Amino acid sequence: MAKMQWPKWTSITLGLALAALTAVGSVKAADCPREDALGTSRIVSVDAKTTPRVGLKSFPQTLPLADHEVVLTFDDGPRPKTTSKVLEALAQECVRATFFLVGRSAAEHPEMVKRIAREGHTIGHHTWSHPHMARIPADAARYEIDHGIASDEMALHGVSTSTPSTPFFRFPYFESTPAQLDLLQARGIVVFGADLWASDWNDMTPEQELKLITERITAAGKGIILFHDAQARTAAMMPAFLRYLRENGFHIVHIVPADTSQRNAEAR
Ligand SMILES: [Zn+2]
């Protein structure tokens, strides 16, 4: 197992086909107090123009991850009690993740939204009230998208805007309609599915969840993993899961939006 160094923002070497899918991002490394931490091995910027939808559970394509590369994503927060534990586990290992927030919860806990961003994580959007989007009228679905984004932006930056500073979106229950997917693509918003998940919405102990997700990531070898930071069992097993990744040679990839100035210039 290769020992991870920190900081270790490696530039990405991708084949031409992969380069067409994602641009390479680079950021300044944060300080990591622990030399033997898992760390974040590289950063990938994701652009809706080239990758409008990712995640093999829902779509034919996903991010061009190398073997043993993992993207950590957390849905349904913020929920202070459990989200704070997840954040502590990530900080302990100097790992960056992506949180898809429920707008209603963001409005209730803006301090937690700011903390997630302050600690270097990416904030994506997960509707206003977490409905089954394929089962509600089109105007209600549009409201769920716009009001959810506006609520997250208000918590983050004090501005109520339906133009997301990070144009990443995930549908609750992975339920969408073709029209909704088209709408998000037209707005330059990347729709995230997942490549694998911990099934942490099911009733199980943290130990059972740990066993399940470590078996799944070992079998898959890489991928975008879906967790729920609102789930106590996930918060409880996260330190052990990150330790497992470190001890088994996995690398963390952090996803960020494509260059903002470029996006604004092209958003018409
Ligand atoms: Zn959800």
| Outline type | globular
Helix-strand makeup class:
alpha/beta
Number of domains: 1
Q: What composes the largest sheet?
A: 8 strands, mixed
Cα end-to-end separation: 47 Å
Classify the fold: give the CATH topology: TIM Barrel
Uncertain segments: 1-29, 261-268
User: From the alpha-carbon coordinates, what is the Rg to the nearest angstrom?
Assistant: 17 Å
Number of strands: 11
What's the tally of helices?
9
Structure write-up:
Helix 6 links the parallel strand 7 and strand 8. With 268 residues, this protein is of the alpha/beta class. 45% of the residues are buried. The chain has one domain: Alpha-Beta Barrel (TIM Barrel). The protein starts with 15 loop residues before the first helix and ends with a helix. It is globular, with a radius of gyration of 17 Å. It is built from nine helices and eleven strands. The longest helix is centred in the middle third of the chain and has 20 residues. The strands form two sheets. Strands 1, 2, 4, 5, 6, 9, 10 and 11 form an eight-stranded mixed sheet that branches. The chain has a three-stranded parallel sheet with strand order 3-8-7. Helix 4 packs across helix 5. Bound molecules: zinc ion. The site of zinc ion has 5 residues, from loops. The site of zinc ion (ZN) has 5 residues, from loops.
